[in-house]
Design a protein that fits this description.
75 residues
Length: 75
């Protein structure tokens, strides 16, 4: 799952994780593979940053981290 959440210190980050079925993203129950902070100077944070992702190898995240692109609309 790709999601953005607010951390306990007030910062926001994007994650690519496995979230347990019927669970809420952004908890200690998630298995996080990649994460990235919000890009400075970007006004619209509803779309995740393309680059700058950090891998969590201990959870299965591999290097190099992914490049994220929005899905193209067919309409």
């Amino acid at each position: 799952m790709l999601f953005r959440c607010k951390l306990s210190d007030g910062t926001r980050r994007w994650y690519i994780s496995i979230v347990p079925e019927d669970g809420n993203p952004g908890t200690t129950q998630d298995i996080d593979f990649y994460a990235v902070g919000l890009s400075p100077g970007v006004v619209d944070h509803s779309i995740p940053p393309r680059d700058g992702w950090t891998a969590f190898p201990s959870n299965g995240g591999a290097s190099p981290p992914p490049t994220v692109y929005p899905k193209e609309s067919n309409s």
